[in-house]
Amino acid sequence: MFDAMGAAGSADDINAMEIHHWYTKFMKECPSGQLCLHEFKHVLDLHGLTPEANNYVEQVFHTFDMNKMHHYYSKFMRECPSGLLSLHEFKRLLDLQGLDPQGDLYIKRVFDIFDLNQDGFIDFLEFIAAINLVIRGKIDQKLKWYFKLYDADGNGCIDKKELLSIFRAIQAINGYTNMSAEEFTNMIFQKIDVNNDGELTLEEFINGVEKDEDLMELITKSFDLSNVLKVIQNGRRNSV
Q: How do residues 56-100 score in pLDDT, each as one tens digit?
């Protein structure tokens, strides 16, 4: 398992099913959830890791202390007793029902990306991974997430049609109106489509955004997830 992790080269490439395997074993071996980092690695057979894999495991361990983990678990199970959050329940949790088609498109994309193993549900581990991304995710991790959101067909590139469609959907949800979807799309491609082929690769996207502070600020604001995070942290809006 960890040979594959080492070959992948980064935590973002780790197979989602492997993560679920670790989580399931952890809960079976330690129902109390009270482990130190050394014990955490021992229970999960995490020995002789590559530096990249070791850093990932330590990040997972330190993301939440145990009190916070139990806090989030309690909230997740209160909102979703089955332990599996469907797209419909995800919309209900965020009070995002009755959306127009553009808004539905955006929420479906967010849900699909948080659904790591693509089984049609968000379980507790995926729920925690989503919170970690929003709260503590490094900028390159967030940019990769933004790229996946834009890359609607999953072919590894973003074209203007995809960018325009998703940005319109984002506007339908968060009300961002500082510029039109057309202006946003044209500006992005003018700034970072370095070979002018009408498509953005992940490398072009990350390098271009990281080198342009104004562009970074614009993308961050356009993807404001503060309202989503508030609901995830505190529970359903009408119950806060």
A: 666 666 655 566 667 777 778 887 888 898 998 888 877 676 767
Kindly state whether residue 70 falls inside one of the protein's structural domains.
no
Tokens, residue 171: 């506007």
SS3 (DSSP) at 85 = strand
Residue 79 included in any domain: no
Domain of 93, CATH number, reads: 1.10.238.10
Q: How confident is the model at residue 221 (pLDDT cuts 50, 70, 90)?
A: confident
Is 72 a domain residue? no
Domain count of the fold of the chain: 2
Query: Which structure tokens are listed for 42?
Result: 């021992």
Name residue 214's amino acid.
D
210 is in which domain, residue-wise? Answer: 87-239
Q: Is the pTM of this model over 0.85?
A: no
| Neighbouring C-beta atoms of residue 223, cutoff 10 Å | 16
Contact of 116 with 19, CB cutoff 8 Å = yes
- Give the pLDDT confidence of 97-137 residue by residue, as tens digits: 676 777 777 788 888 888 887 889 988 878 877 777 776 67
For the chain, helix (H) and strand (E) counts, in that order, are 14, 2
Coil, helix or strand for 151?
A: coil
- Sign (positive/negative) of CA torsion 135, 140, 142, 144? negative
Task: Fill in the amino acid letter for 47.
Answer: H
